[in-house]
Design a protein that fits this description.
Length: 274
């Protein structure tokens, strides 16, 4: 009998706005962020096996394979789920890494969330939403919202999720200069005085810090804003991926083509908002 393989998509997570509203005693920042997901993303496939293993394929496999598997959020998620089993079970996990790493679009978090879902299905584990969210938050602040997988306002450090409908645009262009930014480093440089523009209703409070580190981000946002039909353009998460929102697929696809000409070496995709 052939083994059953279960595949779960790990969509990119885009912070359409990210407002920092406070700081906890442990140093984590309190956020208010509108998050949407895109059709484009990674993929997690699991199948029953005699030991736990992780194989990485896809466009960004080599970047990720340079790190030990124990540091990979997919591995950490698998260990966390395995700990909940009565009897030991194992799986061969395949991650198809299509999203650039350390790029502000929650690739690692989405992979972790998809791993939890896929293994719960494979091992027939019926966990409550509370139990799932507890594991998710321990893996990272963006994992609960990725587990939920629908447009939402997330607050706290990511544990409070309120689903919202987002209708301002249906298509999105993502562009990344293929230069990684460390989330911890960008957050650590946040000072309230850096964002005097609190009167701007929607913003990303980490954008100016990321631009100081990688000035190209400002050029990318300007180029996105200049494309036909762009509703708004901004940076996602702690960067460096920037996005442009569009009402039509035609506008998004032609914006992608134009950006590819301006920035031929950058990663750039056009996708649908889920
Ligand atoms: O939770 P995650 O592992 O994704 O966060 C990476 C780092 O980013 C944290 O160690 C913390 O320094 C910073 N961070 C923060 N406030 C948040 C989320 C992350 O300061 N809400």
């Amino acid at each position: 009998m052939s083994k059953i393989a279960i595949s779960v998509p790990a969509s990119a997570k885009i912070n359409l706005f990210l407002h920092i509203v406070g700081k906890r005693d442990d140093g984590y920042h309190l956020l208010e962020s509108l998050v949407v997901f895109t059709k484009y993303g990674d993929m997690i496939t699991v199948e029953e096996a005699s030991e736990l293993s992780l194989e990485i394929t896809g466009e960004f496999a080599s970047e990720l394979s340079a790190f030990p598997k124990e540091k990979n959020l997919v591995w950490k998620a698998a260990i966390a789920v395995q700990k909940l089993l009565d009897k030991p079970r194992f799986a061969k996990i395949t991650l198809t890494k299509n999203l650039p790493i350390a790029s502000g679009i929650g690739g690692g978090s989405a992979d972790a969330a998809a791993t939890i879902k896929a293994l719960c299905q494979l091992w027939k584990l019926n966990l409550s939403t509370e139990e799932l969210n507890k594991i998710a938050l321990q893996l990272g602040s963006d994992v609960p919202v990725c587990l939920n997988g629908r447009s939402a306002i997330m607050s706290g450090i990511g544990e409070e999720i309120e689903e919202v409908s987002f209708n301002e645009a249906s298509y999105i262009v993502l562009i990344n200069p293929l230069l990684a930014l460390s989330t911890a480093e960008v957050f650590s440089e946040f000072k309230l005085k850096l964002t005097d523009d609190k009167n701007i209703e929607q913003r990303n409070d980490l954008e100016q810090i990321a631009i100081k580190k990688l000035p190209i981000i400002a050029e990318i946002i300007t180029a996105l804003q200049a494309t036909d039909g762009c509703v708004s353009a901004r940076m996602s998460g702690s960067g460096a991926t920037c996005f442009g929102l569009y009402k039509t697929k035609t506008d998004a696809d032609s914006a992608k083509k134009k950006l590819k000409i301006i920035f031929p070496d950058f990663w750039c995709v056009s996708s649908k908002i889920l």
